[in-house]
Design a protein that fits this description.
Blueprint lengths: L2 E3 L1 H7 L7 H10 L5 E3 H13 L8 H14 L1 E3 L3 H12 L7 H14 L3 E3 L3 H5 L3 H4 L2 E2 L5
Parallel strand pairs: 1-4, 2-3, 4-5
Helix pairs in contact: 1-2, 3-4, 5-6
Length: 143
Amino acid sequence: MKRFFDSSVLVPVFYADHPHHALSKKLFLAAGKNDFCALRTLGEVYATLTGMQLRPRITSAQGIGIVEQIRKRLTLITLSEPEYVSALEQASSGTIVGGAAYDALIGHCALKAGADVLLTWNVRDFTRLGPAIARLVKTPLEN
């Protein structure tokens, strides 16, 4: 089974006090190069973890170390320029506006990867992106 990880699953892997830490970490550690995340997700994970008001704070060096751990374990997917524009055009033909456009791009990366499941704790963010993406969406509890 090819799994595609959203940042909502990856962030808890590296934040031990997160309520979803244990299950997210278990899935991440079981993942391999036949599992995926979007290239842009690395930036989301880095920005979220280094921006959190934690004590002790996650430093930039630790943040890059986390990015490297993800890169080593998962295959990164990016959209070509035509794929990127097409994904935005498809999103704009519906009700997708604002930050939801980023979810649409991630959803299209999951489709490009041929993922069997898109793992997220934010199901609603992805199920509204049309049936092709919605059919992939599962929480880690369902996987």
